[in-house]
Design brief:
Layout lengths: L4 H14 L5 H6 L4 E9 L2 E4 L1 H14 E13 L3 E12 L5 E12 L2 E9 L1 H6 L5 H9 L4
Parallel strand pairs: 1-6
Antiparallel strand pairs: 1-2, 3-4, 4-5, 5-6
């Protein structure tokens, strides 16, 4: 069974995979797929409204020297799109970080009304440190 959201998922995957450092044009191309009142959340930020969402993404692409998304799996329903991905990110100064995550998009009338990215902030930050993940596991071992 196909859903109307498959075409939207195709368009978003294409844009997410295309974006890179300094690429504000690809960020701007998201405009037509997002509702003016979209809510965006991830482990480090929240943006209310399409303009705030696009501004947050413009700041991200401006500040990076490496930025790429490799999209993996996806699932669509009439009201939702789920995407799995791997992100590679390096700010202008700093190490290369890599993390996998899931995007959950709520869709209404062909537009994204809620965009929530789920990823492990601790794993992301420790991915650049030699032995960083082992250090975190050791620190939390008494609590697990």
């Amino acid at each position: 069974m196909t859903t109307n959201n498959e075409a939207l998922a195709d368009a978003l995957v294409t844009l997410f995979e295309a974006v890179g450092p300094g690429d504000e044009a690809t960020v701007d191309a998201l405009h037509s797929h997002y509702h003016p009142d979209v809510l965006f959340t991830d482990p480090i930020q929240r943006a209310e409204g399409r303009d705030a969402f696009l501004d947050a993404n413009r700041r991200l692409v401006r500040r990076t020297r490496v930025l790429s998304f490799t999209m993996h799996d996806r699932a669509t329903t009439p009201d939702h799109i789920f995407l799995t991905w791997t992100m590679r990110l390096a700010m202008k100064l700093g190490p290369l970080l890599e993390e996998t995550g899931v995007t959950h998009l709520k869709v209404r009338n062909g537009l994204v009304v809620e965009h929530r990215d789920h990823w492990d902030l601790t794993a992301f930050l420790t991915s650049a440190l030699p032995g960083g993940r082992r250090l975190i596991r050791t620190a939390f071992k008494p609590f697990l």
